[in-house]
Amino acid sequence: MTATLVFWFDSPPHVELGALTSLARIWPADVKVLHFEETRSERRSLGWSNYSDEGWPLDWRRVAKVDVDAILRAFPPGDANHHVFNGLTGNVGNALLQATRVAPLAGFTVMSERPGSYGPLARRVARRLGIRAKHKWLRRKFEPSVSLLLPLGRLGVETFQSYGWPTHKMAPFMYCPPEQATNPTFPSIEVPEDVVRVLYVGRLCFTTKGTDTLLRAWELRTVKGATLDIVGDYGPDAEAVHQWAPRSDHVRMRGTVPTRDLLNVIQDFDLVVVPSAFDGWNVTVNLALRAGVPVLATPDSVSADLVHFSGAGEIFPTGDSDALASSLDKAVSDPAVLQAWTRRAEAYRDRVSPQTVGAYLAGCLEFSLGVAKRRPTPPWEAPQ
């Protein structure tokens, strides 16, 4: 018997939706998506929606905390219904707790980012110690009932391994947003052919997105011949970035772009910078490589895994503006370097398609269910 899949989310999935819809198209039973909250207003303003209204091949339902017991009775965990929980805490964590009480040996699947630890050094250290203690406790509570944990990226796997999760119960996962055919109203700006067009996409936030690292690196460059477009007109440090941009060399603030248009927008650029200070998985890297555009990223983007395995760009140390400036200079001064990165991005793009990631997720769930004897190899990690 093939199990019905029941996914639990705090809010409607977006960055996971490409993989989920591809999974639903190949999974031989129903795929249900339950969520406790609606999409936040800030995200809706950026083009995110509740998606359940848009005809995706998934059975969507908003639920309340009081509904969990009834849902577990309607879809009892076991061979016929496999429950997948997006996280170990919050409403989803509480639902997982209730599920383990109903069926402690059912063998659940859990997807999770690494827990957040960012900000000033003292706060990071204190928060990291608290997180470590909490997640060691969560591991002891849930690990006997979980057949597979899907942390995001290799950094996620290493983090959860440090909490005591066994490696044979983990497989790396990645966010994979949906791709839709769109006609973005994003005006192109003509530049000479020998000018390298650099793009930053995301919140303007120094603490998590590392936008200040990019600003400093742009000033430290020694090789001119590049432009920087900044897409993302929001975030706690938006005012500081807006004040900086007019005083800097060839920088343009381009406002916001609906998330569904980003893939098409990125195709007009030569290089994408992802200077994350702390992310669970920054999907800008996925989108850039899907567009055939190389990336400069930090390890703390987590999605820098894709840069490592593709060779389509460089990984620079988190917060190191000098290193980022050096990578930018390399790309601008030597066209052969940028061309090689671009060829690798184009060759790699299918490794991170929704269809590929959805098929990998299906393989992971078959392993979690005991149908497959081996965990699948992440397709984005296979040699080129």
Automatic annotation (TrEMBL):
Source lineage: Bacteria, Bacillati, Actinomycetota, Actinomycetes, Micrococcales
Gene3D superfamilies according to UniProt: Glycogen Phosphorylase B (3.40.50.2000)
Q: Which CDD domains match?
A: GT4_PimA-like
Question: Is Transferase there in the keyword field?
Answer: yes
Give the top-rank taxon of the lineage listed in the UniProt record for this protein.
Answer: Bacteria
Keywords on record? Glycosyltransferase, Transferase
MF GO annotations: glycosyltransferase activity
Q: Where are the transmembrane segments?
A: none
Protein name, entry field:
Glycosyltransferase
Q: Which Pfam families does this entry report, sorted A to Z? A: Glyco_trans_1_4
